[in-house]
Design brief:
two-stranded parallel sheet; 5 strands; transmembrane; 4 helices; alpha+beta; globular; three-stranded antiparallel β-sheet
Length: 114
């Protein structure tokens, strides 16, 4: 898993800036790959990433395409105390035990007191 993640990061840092921007989806294919690798198993991630790369061409419309991950929640998990850490991703139900993985952005900015 770490090898695949480091390969995507290498591509994103060193190869992608040399190429013209051509991804037809949000999040970009490399972001999609990183999100998928961090939240799914290696086989499921590689399959989803491969399908996404095959769809990223002129024959498909493009648009917003969030990763879909499989996750089961136990009732005790839902009643845990909330942590002080802001969430990095939101899980939005897609089907039974499958969720869209959406990045959480922090729009609150601390203003300095003058």
């Amino acid at each position: 898993m770490k090898i695949a993640t480091s390969l995507v990061i290498f591509y994103k840092k060193y190869i992608s800036p040399l190429l013209p921007r051509s991804c037809r989806y949000y999040p970009s294919c490399s972001e999609y790959a990183l999100w998928q690798l961090s939240h799914s198993g290696i086989i499921a991630s590689i399959f989803a990433i491969s399908l996404r790369i095959l769809r990223c061409n002129q024959l498909f419309r493009g648009g917003i395409d969030y990763p879909i991950i499989k996750r089961k929640f136990t009732p005790s998990y839902l009643f845990l105390k909330q942590s002080q850490v802001e969430p990095k991703f939101w899980l939005i139900r897609h089907k039974k035990d499958k969720f869209y993985l959406i990045k959480a952005f922090d729009y609150q900015r601390k203003r300095s007191v003058r």
